[in-house]
Amino acid sequence: VSGSRSSKTFKPKKNIPEGSHQYELLKHAEATLGSGNLRQAVMLPEGEDLNEWIAVNTVDFFNQINMLYGTITEFCTEVSCPVMSAGPRYEYHWADGTNIKKPIKCSAPKYIDYLMTWVQDQLDDEKKKIGVPFPKNFMSVAKTILKRLFRVYAHIYHQHFDSVMRLQEEAHLNTSFKHFIFFVQEFNLIDRRELAPLQELIEKLGSKDR
């Protein structure tokens, strides 16, 4: 059962077409990440379009989180995680405003499946195709995507960190999350209140880097 379910949640990797400007931006991002200075790596490269930079990085974070969650799907089940939570104080209910207008309570795997499918639909949206001007609401859509992707990190850290440790994935998870947080902080993309479930970790990651 877990096999069929995990393959459902594990979305196909989003690829940015080679030769496109966004592909060049992604290569630039990967090169600066390799330098190990994450604060510098998230900054908008000189002369680049902010929307495009945010789009490229959002696709990259979607792929990273998809992969990280994919490693622990067998531990995140209807039984182990009957609600989507980040510790005892934070519970998330799903609504996408179109198919599900009123927030519903669901298990973590169900919530993450809804979330990843929704993000994929946003990224696939015709309006966001390469070379087409960004729609006026692009920034608000990007903020919603990133806010929701944060919840997957929060769930993994609060409910599955022991599994991550057993798989020896913690360095990978921490680097990915640190990159994500520096990015959303650089461009003020997620409200501080939304980050509350991992506030202590965020402060720790930030202080190490000053």
Written overview of the protein:
This protein has a single domain, classed as Butyryl-CoA Dehydrogenase, subunit A, domain 3 (Up-down Bundle), CATH 1.20.140.30. It contains 8 helices and 2 strands. The protein has helices at 2-9, 21-34, 38-41, 50-72, 108-124, 138-166, 170-186, 199-208; strands at residues 84-85, 91-92. Strands 1-2 form a two-stranded antiparallel ribbon. Helix 2 crosses helix 4 and helix 4 packs parallel to helix 6 (138-166). The chain is globular, with a radius of gyration of 17 Å. Residues 1-7 have low confidence and may be disordered.
Distance between the ends: 46 Å
Radius of gyration based on Cα positions: 17 Å
- CATH C-level class is Mainly Alpha
* Low-pLDDT windows of residues: 1-7
Structural class: mainly alpha
> What is the tally of helical segments?
8
CATH homologous superfamily identity: MOB kinase activator
Strand content: under 5%
Describe this protein with a few key phrases:
disordered N terminus; two-stranded antiparallel ribbon; about 60% helix; about 210 residues; about 0% strand; 8 helices; mainly alpha; Butyryl-CoA Dehydrogenase, subunit A, domain 3
